[in-house]
Structure formats: structure tokens, C-alpha cells
């Protein structure tokens, strides 16, 4: 059994810790101990062994308005960029990431080393664990070279009241209509939200972040990166982070 350092305690971080554990090793988690909010149309794209049901916990109805190219233009400012527009059937199986994260937090909360992950902490981890380190923290935060570039676009996710009649529904609307400022609206796990690359007039219940696009950072080559912001590229789901971490741990 090998100890593996995991940087980050958000959903991707704890999923990676679980992957390490499922592969027969011991995760050692370093992170500021703050439970993450899970905004927007987030769900797991596959089952997590010994954590979720083997079979889908729900089915999501996907609706598309407008065109794929206009959707890409709204989200990324580039109509040629690949997006999730064509990746889903009209109805797609899903697993509840909020429930999974609650279970993972209860499982790992008492074992998280509460610390800011600084370059000193990363070097300490390398000295202790060698290349047996998985980071789910945003790569931009760990970069030590000011000439490295991280491309991204801002996003604003606003929580909305869930219509009572739709609390049990799972729905995601991709909006490629250029006449509308928002690009995605969803009800998942009973939570309703709307997403835009433009600020909302009412800032109440709005989460602000950056949608990663790409980067050229090669800092800390000893550290494996798993997850959308750790890899700093789009199209990386939390489920893919779990699978990547499991494959890394399985080869130890």
C-alpha cells in the first residue's frame, strides 16, 4: 500500500482521493479545508465504485436552442471551438454529484490537512511522495513562471428558484441564440441555475469563475494533474478526473 498526496478537497479532489483508495492505496489530502459549492449543470457522467449506484440515478433531458457554432461563439468567443453541444443524446444517464460529494466530505473531512498549498508545500510533497502526487487545484494558482499563459473566459452562474412542479425533473438547456445573454440553464438535483459569460444585473446568489480553455504551463512536472482546472482545459469532467486518478494509482 502506497501513500499518495492529493492536492485539493473540492469534488474533483475527493473523487481523486477515492480513486486512490479504490486502487488500494492511502490518499493524503492537502488543501484549505473549505467545502466547495457545486454550481451550474454539474453531474457525474458515470458510476463511482462503492460510492454511487452502479445504475444511473437519473436521466437528463438535453435541449438545444440555436446552433452549435453560435453556442461556441457565445461561450468562448470562437464559433469553431468544440463544445459539449454534440456530446449528449437527447436523454442522458447521470449520477448525482452533490450526493456523492456529501458522502466523500463525510468520509475525508477529518483527514484533510488544512493548509494553503504553496510552492513550499508542493516541494515538501515531492520530497515526501516523489511523483505520487495528484493535483486538482487550478494550475494557474500553482504556476511559478510569470510568462506562462492561461486562456479562459469568465462565467457567472446564478441560482434561481426551482419551479415546484419541476423539482424532480433533470433538464439542461444549451442556448445558442445570440439574442439571449445566457448560454445554459439547468435543473439538476432539484437545484435551478442559469449561466452566462456576462454579469447579471442582480448579483444576488451569483458565483463568478473562469472557464478554462488552454495553457502552456509546465511547472511541477512531477505532479499529475486531474480535473478541469488542474489540467486547465475544457471538456474535462469530474468523472474523467476520477478515471485518470484511478489509472495513476493503479500503476503504482
Describe the structure.
The chain has 2 domains: 1-36 and 96-147 and 216-252, FAD/NAD(P)-binding domain; 58-94 and 150-214, no CATH class. The longest helix has 13 residues, at 238-250. The strands form 2 sheets. Strands 4-3-8-9-10-7-11 form a 7-stranded mixed beta sheet. A 5-stranded parallel beta sheet has the order 5-2-1-6-12, with helices on both faces. The protein has 252 residues and is of the alpha/beta class. 35% of the residues are buried. It starts with a strand and ends with a helix. β9 (182-188) and β10 (191-196) form a beta hairpin. The protein is built from 7 helices and 12 strands. Helix content is 26%, strand content 28%. The chain has helices spanning 11-22, 68-76, 97-108, 119-129, 139-142, 228-231, 238-250, and strands at residues 3-7, 26-31, 58-66, 91-94, 113-114, 133-135, 150-160, 171-176, 182-188, 191-196, 206-215, 224-225.
Full CATH superfamily name of the largest domain: FAD/NAD(P)-binding domain
Looking at the structure, the CATH topology of the largest domain is FAD/NAD(P)-binding domain
Q: pLDDT under 50 segments (min length 5)?
A: none
**Radius of gyration, in angstroms, nearest whole number:** 19 Å
**Shape label:** globular
Class based on secondary structure composition and strand pairing: alpha/beta
Can you give the mean pLDDT?
Answer: 93
Question: Helical segment tally?
Answer: 7
Number of strands: 12
What is the terminal separation in angstroms?
A: 9 Å
Strand order of the largest sheet: 4-3-8-9-10-7-11
Tell me, what is the CATH class of the largest domain?
Alpha Beta
Percentage of helical residues?
Answer: 25-40%
Strand residue content: 25-35%
Amino acid at each position: 500500500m502506497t501513500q499518495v498526496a492529493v492536492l485539493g478537497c473540492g469534488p474533483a479532489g475527493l473523487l481523486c482521493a477515492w480513486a486512490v483508495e479504490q486502487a488500494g492505496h492511502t490518499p493524503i489530502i492537502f488543501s484549505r479545508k473549505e467545502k466547495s459549492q457545486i454550481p451550474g449543470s454539474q453531474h457525474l457522467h458515470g458510476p463511482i465504485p462503492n460510492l454511487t449506484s452502479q445504475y444511473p440515478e437519473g436521466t437528463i433531458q438535453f435541449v438545444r436552442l440555436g446552433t452549435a457554432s453560435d453556442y461556441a461563439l457565445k461561450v468562448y468567443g470562437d464559433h469553431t471551438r468544440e463544445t459539449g453541444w454534440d456530446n449528449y443524446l437527447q436523454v442522458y444517464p447521470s449520477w448525482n454529484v452533490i450526493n456523492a460529494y456529501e458522502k466523500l466530505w463525510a468520509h475525508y473531512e477529518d483527514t484533510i490537512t488544512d493548509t494553503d498549498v504553496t510552492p513550499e508545500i508542493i516541494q515538501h510533497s515531492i520530497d515526501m511522495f516523489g511523483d505520487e502526487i495528484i493535483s486538482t487545484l487550478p494550475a494557474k494558482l500553482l504556476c511559478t513562471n510569470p510568462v506562462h499563459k492561461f486562456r479562459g473566459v469568465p462565467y457567472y452562474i446564478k441560482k434561481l428558484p426551482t419551479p415546484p412542479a419541476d423539482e424532480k425533473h433533470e433538464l439542461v438547456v444549451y442556448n445558442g441564440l445570440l439574442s439571449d445573454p445566457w448560454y445554459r440553464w439547468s435543473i439538476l438535483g432539484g437545484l435551478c441555475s442559469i449561466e452566462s459569460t456576462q454579469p447579471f444585473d442582480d448579483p444576488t446568489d451569483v458565483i463568478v469563475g473562469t472557464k478554462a480553455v488552454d495553457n502552456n504551463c509546465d511547472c511541477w512536472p512531477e505532479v499529475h494533474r486531474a480535473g478541469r482546472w488542474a489540467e486547465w482545459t475544457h471538456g474535462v469532467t469530474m468523472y474523467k478526473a476520477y478515471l485518470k486518478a484511478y489509472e495513476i494509482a493503479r500503476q503504482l
